[in-house]
Amino acid sequence: MERMTGAHFRALRTYLGYSVKEIADYLGVSQNSARAWDKGVYQPPAGVVEELQELSDATDKAVEYLARHYSKSEIEWPMEIPRTPEDIPDMLPQIIMPGPVTLDWWKMVGIRVCERVPGLTLEWA
After folding, report:
1. Is the pLDDT of residue 52 over 70?
2. What pairs with residue 122 in β-bridges?
3. Is 13 exposed, middle or buried (0-12, 13-18, 19+ CB in 10 A)?
């Protein structure tokens, strides 16, 4: 995807669990730029679109990895997700992301994993 509308930017940002401030920090841009893209005042540049696609692809891979992980019968349930920002570094180290993730990212990922693994529930770490 070379171009992205404001609606697409906002939908993807929200889906991935990032606030405007968090996505601005992730992308290394000003909050004003991220806010303008979010409102559709400007379209995000191609490099930003590529970074968001990379984040989205890495998120999909994390969901698939965790779904396989929790599908194994010897793995203890429930799936733990971080409750505070301080808990994030203690999560599964096998998940490699291109940048920092948020609490809401973990919530979204947790729900997606639960949708793939029957009976899996979420708990705070």
Report:
1. yes
2. 79
3. buried
Cα–Cα distances (Å) from 14 to 7, 56, 110, in that order, read 11, 11, 15
| Distance from the Cα of residue 55 to its chain's centroid | 7
Q: How many CA atoms lie within 13 A of 117 on its CB side?
A: 25
Is there a cis peptide before residue 78, judged by omega within 30 degrees of 0? yes
What would the pLDDT profile of 54-110 be if each residue is shown by its tens digit? 999 999 999 999 999 999 877 778 999 999 999 999 887 888 899 999 999 999 999
Q: Decide: helix, strand or coil at residue 122.
A: strand
Q: Is 50 helix (H, G, I), strand (E, B) or coil?
A: helix
Can you read off the two tokens belonging to residue 53?
Answer: 């696609």
Single-letter amino acid code for the residue at 77: W
**Structural contact between residues 4 and 43, judged by C-beta atoms closer than 8 angstroms:** yes
Count the alpha carbons within 13 Å of 11 in the hemisphere toward its beta carbon. Answer: 5
Residue 12, both tokens: 């993807």
